[in-house]
Design a protein that fits this description.
single chain, about 260 residues, alpha/beta, Rossmann fold, 7-stranded parallel sheet, 7 helices, binds ligand 0WD
Length: about 260
């Protein structure tokens, strides 16, 4: 049975450029019929907006909105615009994270409180705040997917603070799944992706070594692509995944099952 998300209204966050995992996801969702709302991280000069707008125009998003998740008013505004335009929502892709470069190298015990608060605010709390404003709009059987990494459960060199943020994110997935499931069958899951070269991952010390290690040791002897993460996400957004919630699904060429 092929996937069909015809006319499903899905919000995609976290597209920064054509390497972004969210870009792979958005393309896949569009290919199976979804109607997209896309957010971009605004900056003073509007450079991001122009870049993301040009990149995503082929996907014909019916909503294109600024969203800096550190600004609660902006989160609220995104969902009031969705209410105005669509009236409801069938899915959300939470595909964003941030930690200062200096927090992604060296020793975790050198993390500053400012760095910690900012990373957890953007990378973890944002999923809860998005769900808070989305809740009244989410349709029966809708689906929320966030992105995580193995560094949540293993001490991966240099991943440090982001590992702690992802551990809290994975826990948030379970609490949100328990909260949102009962009334309207709303599902919340995380995809734990293998390492992929993107703008965000280039900030992690030794990212290329991480990728080479996966290429050497994973059962599939390679890392994964944005396209593969996109396919798994489309599945989780679809009724075919109606029995799956609160889970962390690995799209990592099998690396997480190995002893290395
Ligand atoms: O190897 C990888 N690339 C993996 C990434 C492996 C496993 C998981 N992930 C996760 C990341 O942790 C993140 O949650 O996937 C998600 C997407 O990351 P990505 O595709 O690797 O990175 P990127 O293309 O940089 O997109 C992340 C985007 C930001 O980009 P930049 O590089 O400008 O920080 O997150 C967005 C922004 O577009 N973002 C924000 N969006 C709203 N409000 C904010 C914010 N405050 N900060 C960053």
């Amino acid at each position: 049975m092929s996937l069909d998300l015809s006319s499903r209204k899905i919000l995609v966050t976290g597209i920064a450029n054509n390497r972004s995992i969210a870009w792979g996801i958005a393309q896949k969702l569009k290919a199976v019929g979804a109607e997209l709302g896309i957010t971009y991280l605004p900056d003073n000069k509007g450079r991001f907006e122009a870049k993301v707008r040009a990149l995503t125009s082929v996907l014909e998003p019916t909503l294109f909105l600024p969203l800096d998740v550190q600004d609660g008013k902006q989160v609220e505004l995104v969902f009031s615009k969705i209410k105005e335009k669509w009236g409801y929502l069938d899915g959300i892709i939470h595909c964003l994270a941030f930690a200062g470069k200096e927090e992604l190298i060296g020793s975790y015990s050198d993390t500053t409180i400012e760095g910690f608060t900012r990373a957890l605010d953007i990378s973890t709390y944002s999923l809860a705040s998005i769900c808070h404003y989305a809740k009244p709009l989410l349709s029966n059987g809708s689906s929320i997917v966030t992105l995580t990494y193995l560094g949540a459960e293993r001490a991966i060199p240099n991943y440090n603070l982001m590992g702690v943020a992802k551990a809290a994110l994975e826990s948030s997935v379970r609490y949100l799944a328990a909260e949102l499931g009962p009334e309207r069958q709303i599902r919340v899951n995380a995809i734990s992706a293998g390492p992929i070269r993107t703008l965000a991952s280039s900030a992690i010390g030794g990212i290329l070594d991480m990728i080479h290690n996966v290429e050497e040791k994973s059962p599939l002897r390679r890392t994964v692509t944005q396209d593969e993460v996109g396919s798994a996400t489309a599945f989780l957004m679809s009724p075919s995944a109606s029995g799956i919630t609160g889970q962390v699904i690995y799209v990592d060429a099998g690396y997480s099952i190995t002893g290395m």
